[in-house]
Write a structure and sequence with these properties.
single chain, alpha/beta, Aspartate Aminotransferase, domain 1, Aspartate Aminotransferase, domain 2, 2 domains, 4-stranded antiparallel sheet, globular
């Protein structure tokens, strides 16, 4: 018998077929957060002070962005403000890029495994995703395969996470610029959210007048500790930044993010100290893993991969019982069975190691 109830209007076919990107975001507060590669200690006291100083009546006023691009420009060595796009986090920038440049049937080229939100952004526009696997046990960048795919597929977009999340794979700036120069009809998007932990950004070698198809994404979530406020930027030629920005709303970034972002950019010393502490803690943990012969992979970024001998799911659950959160890579190509562990301070990683080594039966 037919259902007499009214049916909802179906969405676009691409949306009806889409599997949304989701992550276990709830119930994380108060735990040791080693699961999402966030800053693990919080923002600079200057950021907290700046937010607290916002008058209550300003909550009722739409956000104003004067000075934010200029602050980013100063932090980036004087990059022209019209080459800086402001977004409600890099996720929103990725979405806008696909909206602005993705047509049904166009190809988005990327690597595998990589950040999981790239594919939904492309698929919601009806794009075809071609993901090229990393190579070998050390997850080398598949440069020759990528060059071949650029020439044969003429993709609309090439998305590169550099260093890559979750493998930490890095591709040199010269190689990135060469890829962009060789494929002028492809928008080459370099996601540099973890660049601060490696220091090998493509920006010093980038010339947006010569490669206007190159876009670089940055955020303050991983280093400056304001992931909850959502603030990201896209850097590129003024014309491309303008096109990407056209598909965003006029007030996508809230006033708290504006104030916090400017305060964070004015306290680079705090960010630098945090990055150095993370690198120190990462080296400490890697030494422990080597000493106890625990299979792991450590490259760029504020994270590494660990393969627990007892299984990733049981280890993840046991750590959660100790109020320590890590991220299972179950089902991810090439790294199935591993845990991605974000790196915090040395004190935090000693807490992680105490719980992990006990769960694994390491002496």
């Amino acid at each position: 018998m037919p259902d007499p109830r009214p049916q909802f209007p179906p969405a676009r076919s691409e949306v009806e077929q889409l599997q949304s990107y989701s992550a276990p975001l709830e119930g994380r507060r108060g735990m040791l957060r080693l699961d999402f590669n966030e800053n693990s200690v919080g923002p600079s006291p200057k950021v907290v002070e700046a937010i607290r100083s916002i008058p209550a009546e300003h909550y009722a006023i739409y956000p104003e962005y004067d000075g934010l691009r200029e602050a980013f420009s100063q932090s980036l060595g004087g990059l022209p403000c019209d080459q800086i796009g402001l977004f409600n986090g890099v996720d929103a920038a990725l979405h806008a890029i696909c909206q602005a440049y993705g047509n049904p049937g166009d190809v988005m080229l990327t690597t595998s495994p990589t950040f999981g939100y790239y594919q939904p952004c492309a698929r919601m526009q009806g794009m075809v995703v071609n993901a090229i696997p990393y190579e070998g046990d050390d997850y080398r960048f598949p440069l020759q395969d990528m060059q071949r795919a650029l020439a044969q597929l003429n993709p609309r977009l090439l998305l590169l996470c550099n260093p890559n999340n979750p493998t930490g794979t890095r591709l040199g700036a010269e190689a990135i610029c060469q890829l962009a120069a060789a494929a002028p009809s492809t928008l080459v998007v370099v996601d540099e959210l973890y660049e601060a932990f490696t220091g090998d950004s493509v920006l010093p070698q980038a010339d947006f007048s010569q490669t206007p198809n190159l876009v670089v994404l940055r955020s303050l979530s991983k280093t400056a500790g304001i992931a909850g406020l959502r603030l990201g930027i896209a850097l590129g030629s003024a014309a491309v930044v303008d096109r990407i920005s056209r598909v965003t709303g006029p007030y996508d970034i809230n006033s708290f993010a504006v104030i916090a972002g400017m305060a964070a950019l004015q306290d680079q010393a705090y960010v630098d100290d945090y990055v150095q502490e993370v690198l120190k803690a990462k080296a400490w943990l890697v030494n422990k893993l080597i000493k106890h012969q625990v299979r792991h992979h450590s490259a760029g970024g504020n994270y590494l991969l660990i393969w627990p001998s007892q299984g990733a799911a049981s280890c993840e659950a046991a750590l959660r019982q100790e109020e320590i959160l890590v991220r299972s890579m179950a089902g991810k190509p090439l790294i199935d069975g591993s845990l991605r562990v974000s790196i915090g301070t040395t004190k935090q990683m000693k807490r992680f190691w105490k719980a992990f080594s006990a769960q694994q039966g390491l002496s």
